[in-house]
Amino acid sequence: MTVKLHRTALTQAQRLIDNGKAIWDERDAWSEHEPSARQENAFIKKYGFGQFGKWHLGVDDSEPVDTKEHYKFPYGDFEMVHRCGLLAAESRAGQYKYTAIEAAAARLLSMLEKMAPAPAQRGR
Q1: Domain range list for the chain
Q2: What pTM was computed for the model?
Q3: What is the block-wise mean pLDDT of the chain (124 residues), using blocks of 10 residues?
Q4: Distance of CA 79 to CAs 12, 31, 33, 35, 93, Å?
Q5: Could you tell me if 88 and 31 are in contact, meaning their C-beta atoms sit under 8 angstroms apart?
Q6: Who contacts 26 (Cβ-Cβ below 8 Å, separation ≥6)?
């Protein structure tokens, strides 16, 4: 398996954060916020795998491009970047030694940190 950084997705995530399209959610909320298989399928049907891939920081070159398995390390819900998604991506990438993806997630988290809401507003 050859998983590498998906630079197009990184660029999209940076742009979304710059435009305030990010949610400062709780660290462990990704299992609740991650799109379901049904949501993924609906998104792919409407926009295609190219757009689907922009929501994943990694690509697996051992899998066909027109499959979900090609795309790894999701970070958002097809509308917003989620802090919990970035934290999950950073952690998993670190576990599997995908250093470029881990570093990209850390950079995105740093961008998000600069735009962080006041403590009373976090997690909403």
Answers
A1: 3-121
A2: 0.91
A3: 94 97 92 96 98 98 97 98 97 97 98 74 48
A4: 11, 17, 11, 11, 23
A5: no
A6: 84, 123
